[in-house]
Design a protein that fits this description.
By secondary structure, this protein is an alpha+beta fold. It is built from four helices and eleven strands; from the N terminus they run H-H-H-E-E-E-E-E-E-E-E-E-E-E-H. The chain starts with 21 loop residues before the first helix and ends with a helix.
């Protein structure tokens, strides 16, 4: 087992961003400013929420786009804070084979590079993007199904499969990233999907505007990807070309959390 998994976490959930709290109010204010409205004048919160749900003018559409990107950044930071506070890892994986494991108090993120290899899970392809998760104890097998909204419908966009150690002789505990090929094969994960699934599945809807898509997934006991003794958060990046400003915000948020955690330990 990798030393990074040597100390079990305490478990727990995710801190969310919901209506009525300061983060939500700040985002509403952001939408008002971006759309050219005065929050304390003619535009009410109800009106602004209607704009977020169904923008009509180019200015409103641009404001909503920025709002959603900021929402993703704040949600990411909130989730990272929860994981840090509980001594639990944050695992980031994208469709190009670039992955990291971030443990609080453990220094810089640990790199895990995805490689194309055979997937021994049910219906697994002979060549699929596979990340070695570096020895998580008791990884729960299963498939995370990620859907993308297209108008009023949702289509399967990605599958992240969790194969425990020993799924095949000598096989390490791994995450396998499958992505659709609707737009051609422009990423390492674009291999199509396995021909069968584990009986154990979870489903999530991809969030964020085009260019900043993905999911934040924290499995509970028995769900795919759950690790005994930890509350792991997976940051699955489906579309890895987010706006440069968003990348900077996420990086600063995580760096700040790491530094704050280290100071508390000292």
């Amino acid at each position: 087992m990798d030393l990074s998994w040597g100390a079990a976490g305490t478990g727990g959930g995710i801190s969310g961003i919901g209506r009525g709290n300061s983060s939500h109010n700040a985002l509403i204010g952001l939408a008002a400013r971006e759309a050219g409205h005065n929050q304390e004048g003619t535009a009410t919160k109800r009106t602004l929420l209607a704009i977020v749900r169904s923008p009509h003018t180019p200015q409103e559409e641009e404001a909503v786009h920025k709002l959603r990107v900021h929402w993703i950044v704040l949600a990411f930071a909130a989730t990272a804070l929860t994981a840090m506070a509980q001594n639990n890892p944050l695992i980031t994986l994208n469709e190009h084979g670039q992955g990291t494991l971030l443990f609080p108090g453990g220094g810089s993120p640990i790199t895990t590079t995805g490689v194309l290899t055979a997937d021994p899970g049910p219906g697994g392809l002979p060549s699929a993007l596979t990340y070695n998760l570096l020895g998580p104890p008791g990884l729960v097998a299963g498939d995370l199904l990620i859907f993308e909204s297209l108008g009023v419908s949702a289509v399967l966009s990605d599958i992240v499969r969790f194969n425990p150690a020993g799924t095949a002789p000598g096989y390490p505990a791994s995450a396998v990233f499958y992505s659709d090929m609707d737009d051609g094969a422009d990423a390492t994960a674009d291999t199509g999907f396995p021909t069968a699934l584990y009986a154990n599945t979870s489903t999530m809807l991809e969030v964020g505007p085009e260019g900043a898509n993905g999911v934040l997934y924290t499995p509970t006991a028995g769900q795919p990807g759950f690790v005994s003794g930890f509350s792991v958060t997976y940051n699955i990046v489906s579309d890895d070309t987010p706006e440069p400003a968003s990348i900077g915000l996420v990086g600063l948020a995580v760096a700040g959390l790491v530094e704050a955690y280290r100071r508390r330990r000292v």
